[in-house]
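User: Sequence recovery, please. Input:
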């Protein structure tokens, strides 16, 4: 018999279980690594029945076993390896000799790093990201819909909480659609295994960090997906969750040590108050509950102060970059993580991949709160977070206010102007990801109450704004619904299943209005893809007057003028006020219609409409 740590009702308890429930050597992670990494050190987690009683040895030129760590649970060992510069690609055995003389072995593989130029390119303000929830986009392989032995076996498209069958092959089948739309990067919500009994289709309750969920495909298929994206000029963003894991995760079912997760006398949920992290007057308990409280009974909150947890997560994320060649990371629930660890994590990732892109999810309530988490803001922190950019929810809210609000000193379109005026808080605001909606919030078309003019204006503002624009799957075909509950904004893309009555991946399957929306976005997205002024160009904005907001994106190649009328009636705009940016230009091209404008001294802008003009000399 042995002591075993398990979770009951969200609490970690110590109970007794039988040795034979765990194989003699269940797993070694990471099961492979690479020669030639900047950091030569790797820590392996070894899980098996009473494995701690073993004597460990290995023999391979260039690889040293520098330490063997035993922890509270005898079913674990942590092995420190030093992979020196003399190590060559190949395999070697790690031997575990039991007291009774039994010898277990594990074949460890060292790989050669892939130095192909199109790997780990980074996602920048030259890109347009398209966010997909794999389970809800397209079912390309019905054979993997149900997998024997998994806790959720059924596919039920009539339930918003059940699995629907979408997978990686389905996304691969529609990469041409994304390319045509003008997308340059694809972000999937987590595609690694979520073997929870219910409602884990979203991917944020991981149960195996090194395995693609078999209902989506295999590790090899995911790697193929990345390669096919790269072949088409598309980049790939991988979604990571540092803060928590599903309670059915193998290392939660049998934890290495009690301090593997944050412990509470009784289940304690996070207060979700990010201000407590930065508030100089904050109660220490408020801050602790914010950071260490659990997201949900079924999402165990990892203790990122634990060095073994730190090593496990950091190595896993580097493993996926090296294995699949992804181009960037989106970091889920960033403010809830241990800040010092996340800075160390970012330094280690950047050391291996200097051009790799990282942005953190920060759904907070002000520009200051958001900028607090970004790289370069060391005020009252004592360290640099090393986080290049964030998901810019302040821009999202400001665009919604500009479209729906009434004109006022800080309301309506003035909100957008004001938010951009606070860009001085960031080391580089162009590394922020700007968006209008995503999988956790109401669909943009519903936010503007299905007003088609506002929809087009919002998309024009998004695709001409500073930063890295991100769309949510189906925005381009006017998918709608308020996030009440979340499942309503995670509906299936029509045409992604063979028995769908409509196929909106094709122009024939879309309504006239849907085609107009698709064509509008495609025109602007592809224009942006070929216009450096909208990618890396400077932004100059003017204080809104009479409800009309004007800004320019410009570089040495082009100058683009964006005009938004936030009024409920047409506005007459005289452009002499903008002479410092319009000097030398006499005509313009309407980017959407390709219409030539011979007189740019005055414009009549319809209510709630946005014009995008390329100025000409």
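Assistant: Recovered sequence (617 residues):
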């Amino acid at each position: 018999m042995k002591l075993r740590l398990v979770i009951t009702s969200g609490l970690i308890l110590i109970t007794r279980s039988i040795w034979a429930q765990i194989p003699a050597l269940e797993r070694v992670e990471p099961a492979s690594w690479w020669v030639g990494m900047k950091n030569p050190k790797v820590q392996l987690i070894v899980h098996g029945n009473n494995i701690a009683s073993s004597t460990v040895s290995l023999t391979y030129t260039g690889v040293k076993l520098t330490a063997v760590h035993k922890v509270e649970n005898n079913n674990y060992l942590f092995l420190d390896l030093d992979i020196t510069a003399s190590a060559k690609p190949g395999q070697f055995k790690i031997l575990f000799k039991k007291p009774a003389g039994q010898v277990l072995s594990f074949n460890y593989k060292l790989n050669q790093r892939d130095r192909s130029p199109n790997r780990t390119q980074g996602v920048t303000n030259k890109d347009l990201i398209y966010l997909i929830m794999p389970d809800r986009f397209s079912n390309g392989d019905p054979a993997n819909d149900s997998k024997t032995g998994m806790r959720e076996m059924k596919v039920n498209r009539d339930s918003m909480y059940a699995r629907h069958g979408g997978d990686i092959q389905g996304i691969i089948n529609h990469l041409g659609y994304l390319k045509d739309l003008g997308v340059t990067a694809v972000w999937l919500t987590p595609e690694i295994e979520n073997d929870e009994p219910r409602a884990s289709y979203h991917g944020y309750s991981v149960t195996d960090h090194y395995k693609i969920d078999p209902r989506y495909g295999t590790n090899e298929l995911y790697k193929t997906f990345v390669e096919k994206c790269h072949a088409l000029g598309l980049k790939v963003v991988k979604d990571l969750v540092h803060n928590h894991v599903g309670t059915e995760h193998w290392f939660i079912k049998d934890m290495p040590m009690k301090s593997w997760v944050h412990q509470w006398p009784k289940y304690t949920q996070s207060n979700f108050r990010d201000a407590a992290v930065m508030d100089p007057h904050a109660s220490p308990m408020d801050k602790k509950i914010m950071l260490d409280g659990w997201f949900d009974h079924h999402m165990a909150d990892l203790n990122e102060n634990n060095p073994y947890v730190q090593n496990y997560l950091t190595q896993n994320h580097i493993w996926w970059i090296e294995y699949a060649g992804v181009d960037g990371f989106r970091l889920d629930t960033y403010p809830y993580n241990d800040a010092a660890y996340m800075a160390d994590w970012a330094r280690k990732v950047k050391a291996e991949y200097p051009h790799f892109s990282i942005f953190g999810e920060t759904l907070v309530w002000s520009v200051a709160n958001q900028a607090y988490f970004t790289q370069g803001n060391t005020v009252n922190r004592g360290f640099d977070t090393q986080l290049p950019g964030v998901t810019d929810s302040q821009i999202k809210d400001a665009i919604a206010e500009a479209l729906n609000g009434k004109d006022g000193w800080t309301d309506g379109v003035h909100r957008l102007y004001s938010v951009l005026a606070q860009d001085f808080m960031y080391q580089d605001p162009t590394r922020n990801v700007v968006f209008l909606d995503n999988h956790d919030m109401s669909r943009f078309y519903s936010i503007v109450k299905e007003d088609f003019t506002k929809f087009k204006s919002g998309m024009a503002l998004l695709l001409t704004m500073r930063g890295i624009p991100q769309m949510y799957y189906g925005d381009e075909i006017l998918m709608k619904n308020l996030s009440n509950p979340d499942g309503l904004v995670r509906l299936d893309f029509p045409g992604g299943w063979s028995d769908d009555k409509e196929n909106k991946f094709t122009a024939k399957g879309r309504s006239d209005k849907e085609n107009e929306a698709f064509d509008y976005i495609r025109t602007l997205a592809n224009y942006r893809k070929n216009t450096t002024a909208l990618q890396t160009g400077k932004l100059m904005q003017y204080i809104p007057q009479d409800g009309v907001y004007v800004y320019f994106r410009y570089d040495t190649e082009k100058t683009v003028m964006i005009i938004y009328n936030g009024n409920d009636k047409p506005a007459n705009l005289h452009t002499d006020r903008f002479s410092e940016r319009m000097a030398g230009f006499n005509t313009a091209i309407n980017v959407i219609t390709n219409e030539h404008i011979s007189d740019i001294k005055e414009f009549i802008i319809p209510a709630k409409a946005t014009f995008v003009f390329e100025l000409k000399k």
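Confidence is low (pLDDT under 50) at residues 1-5, 13-20.
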